[in-house]
Amino acid sequence: MSADCLFCKIIAGDIPSQKVAETEHIVAFNDITPQAPTHLLVIHKQHTPSLSDSPDSLILGQWMSGVRDVAQQQQLSDYRVIVNNGTGAGQSVFHLHAHILAGRPLDWPPG
Ligand code: 5GP
Ligand code: ZN
Fold it and tell me: pTM for this one?
């Protein structure tokens, strides 16, 4: 828990969100500014600012397994998982999160 972190506040329920899944390890909720018909954010409950802050493999495994499980529960077959690392790559919230995008054609390579 990081006191000034938006996503930690969402985990705690101090800021409302539309949660679609929650386990012992992860929370998944709708992005407030969806970029596709389905746009979910999946976060680990343990605060880590970004991927390059190297959470241990156990945390990474729990988190990415959570991404897979949420996609399955939402019955998504074709989807994209995005992790923005650093401001220059588009990261704006510094609590490690995966975007799951689905429901429209997704260009490759991304812009
Ligand atoms: P980033 O830019 O760090 O990769 O992604 C942060 C995401 O968090 C953005 O897609 C943004 O729309 C989303 N976001 C920012 N504030 C809130 C909020 O208060 N609630 C929810 N549900 N999503 C948020
Ligand atoms: Zn946090």
Answer: 0.97
